[in-house]
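Re: the request from the purification team.
They wanted to know what the chain is likely to look like in 3D before they choose a buffer screen. I agreed to run a prediction and write the result into the notebook, where they can find it.
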Amino acid sequence: MSTRIFPSRPPATGRVRGFTLIELLVAIAAMALMAGLSWRGLDGMVRAQAQIQQRADAVLTLQAGLAQWSADLDALQPLPQTQALDWDGRGLRLIRHSSAAPGAGLLVVAWALRNIDGNPQWLRWQSPPQFTRGGLQSAWERAAQWAQNPGDEEKKYEVRIAALAQWQIFYFRGNAWTNPLSSDNAATAAVAPAVAPSVAPAPAIPASGASQAAAAPDPSLPEGVRLVLTLPPGQALSGNLTLDWVQPALGKGKS
């Protein structure tokens, strides 16, 4: 019996070559650089989206505030021997009927500019519904106090509208826009004194006067009110913004 011997395979002379440490470090550095660039791009997109959303929210808030301003003036409620609209250089006060429901009483509303945490803010204040002359007088005085030097109790009824640098009010009388604090406007306002004191505890004011206010123009009120807002730089909107309002009985709506 013979034994067959197969020749053995010659040893391989080639060697499987892998990555060197330097090549591995270079690859890791390149991937880290690409990841960093990608992160900066994503971070920039997120920041831009947040700024756009913030500006859009600021614009919507300002639009809502201006709509509320016009709605307050549209709802002005003239009363006998009562000043329904007053500007003293610091705040604007007005008496308006409630839009909640018929018989919901009257509201005293005030607008003012006040510094809050180092930033001037345009604010709106609204009293609870009033049903008597005495309550209306008290709310009218509280609105003046809120515009000048508010306490904690008055601040409960205020709402921040927007950041402002300053604001101005003008009345339209005699085919011209004039300063409400001028002598002509002061003489006209003197014809209609502030809210008369209450002589009886029973309700003495109408619950709602929307139809009366729209029936005919009230000579004690200006024919129009011009609002000029100066928006600070760095906001969604900046510069001067002007909004004119005309008595609905005269202009058949807002301008």
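For the purification team: The mean pLDDT is 80.
Please add any questions underneath this entry.
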